[in-house]
Amino acid sequence: MPLSRLLPALLLCLGALRAWAEPAVQPQLELGACVGQGPAPAVPARTPPYDLALSPIPPTEEQAWSLLGYRPDAARRRLLAPTGEAVSQPEVAFAREPYDARLERVDANTWNSLQRQGYRLDEKTCRFLLDGRPVTRLEVRLYRFWSGKGEELQAVQSLRAALAALPRGRPVPPEILKKLQQLKAAQVQLPAGLEAKLNSAADVRSALAAVDQAHEAAARFWDGLTPMSAQLKAAMPAVAGWTAGQADGAYAAEAEARLGQLLASDVQSLLAQYPAGAELLARFKGRDGRVRLPAVRVLKVSQRPDDLGFGQSSAVYSPSSDSITLNYWPMARQALAAAPESERARLAKEFADPGRLSAYLAQHPDARRAFVQACDVELYHELVHAWQGRRGKLNVEMLRGNLAPLNPLEKEHEAFREMFRYFHAKLVKDPAATMKSPWFDSYLALLGSYDEYRDHITRQYMSTFGGYADMPTLEQIQKDRRGLARRMGARSPSDWARQGLKLIGLGHGDEALREFRAEETARSREFAGKEWPKMRGQGYGVLLAEFQRVGRTDKALLVARLPGAASAEQRRALQGELERRMKDGPANGRMSFMERMDAWPVLDQVYGAKGLPAELESARQKDYVGYAQAALAGSRQAKTAAEKTNSATALKWARGLLGQVKDPALRKKLAQELDAEAKRR
Questions:
Q1: What residues contact residue 56 under an 8 Å CB cut-off, 6+ apart?
Q2: Which of 576, 575, 580, 547 is nearest to 561 (CA)?
């Protein structure tokens, strides 16, 4: 059977097995007050108008209003909105008030941007503070604005690169419009009117004209905010602290630093237990032999745990500060689940304040290490990104503006590749525990085909996130930026000076891109040619042995049928063993009804269109009926909350399987009993 058909069947069966192994009832974490629950602040009154003569706006604040499209009207002593209307005094006062996270929601990008700037949320007041000063609503609007303008530039550059390789006279192909929709789906802000222009473009030439116009507008906007001194630094070779920024990784408070150092120590201790982990740690050693990991912080990565993109992440690496943020939301849930049951109700209230959680983790090393153990795979992934940033020039030149602010997908390919080397080492050491990981399905997909899994990562990131591009796209963007700089430089002497410096800087970006591509190509070939075949053979062997050890012949057979996993003799032996056990029925004492329900699709895969032999089909019919009866009995006997939750799930499964019962009278009778029991519960 082709891998594309067999592997999904294996993943489905393993997913069902894990779902039944997970705890039915999870402790509920209280979200706290700072989650933007509203009601939203009332819209300020339109009058009286703000009087610039009586209350001049400070220069820094005036710049913020200006960037947002507001302008002063000196003659009338008014501040005018982008619509041309006079801004009222209450509106200005409202904008100057502290942002209140108790009432107001912000997107995860803005939330993270505030934290990267050093702001920290005060859980008592629900305000973001920096050196005791709260961030204002005007500043939050400004951070949103920066984020949107950055997304506009990324979108224009990506679209321009996609159009550049096409013949100018042909119609705009569907893949360009599909890319436009992907950017929108990823909530990337597009320049005003660009979508309509592309949808109505007669051909590629007219589409390029619209994109080029938007590209120049975006470039002029950012040029207007970049001093010539900064442009000069970007044109010079990168020297940390002089012509290039230097990530400080500083902590915002003593308690944050203390917990971060404890967590960094926990991470080192855990990773050092595995060869791949020790190898990664060695890459962070300084000349004195000491491992220096990025700063580790515990913060709310998003305002709410369900916020798009960040809320579910366990860890996020920031290249601008060379720091890893561990997400408070999953960390608090993990600490709550690990706590004694008698203390959970109290801790659920305490942990609503991240400061209380941090204090608890500092005092309870077991809880701290439990979280590190639970998210070590994600942490490893983010540490690979940190290593990428430290070993090459790519991040440096991106932060200097000499490369487009788009992450190469090849970075993710490498991070996942390295992450699964670590995962593999864990599997070899402790198969039973590692197979329960949510990353197990992805690991199997990687073993099945490295090329297919790498393509899956590309599709996933391109359809979900707006800030990624592959290497050919990045190279085309560099070429497009160079062409734009030459065109703009020919328009005036001041443009010539700025764009000339920009062209020199782009050369540094080109060099960083070439180095990264060469290194990544070599690493990818090394993995595909040596590491992956070794992982595959060893991984399949471990899985076969583990499934046979726990009596799951069905799972062992599924693995054995994957290409390169076992010999024909091994597959035949496992198939014969599974058929014997399934004919024997649940009385063999090794497979529960749930496990048998999980195993029948494996034999369906083996026999395919021919269908099961009569004796096996008869055994399956008995199992369907027996499972329904067991689900009914379990529901009637359930007492604890966990038992009731599990039995409710079993009733649903049993009801869904009744369509496979061939005896109509028996099927009707069982359906009535299952429906009646479900209503009773």
A1: none
A2: 575
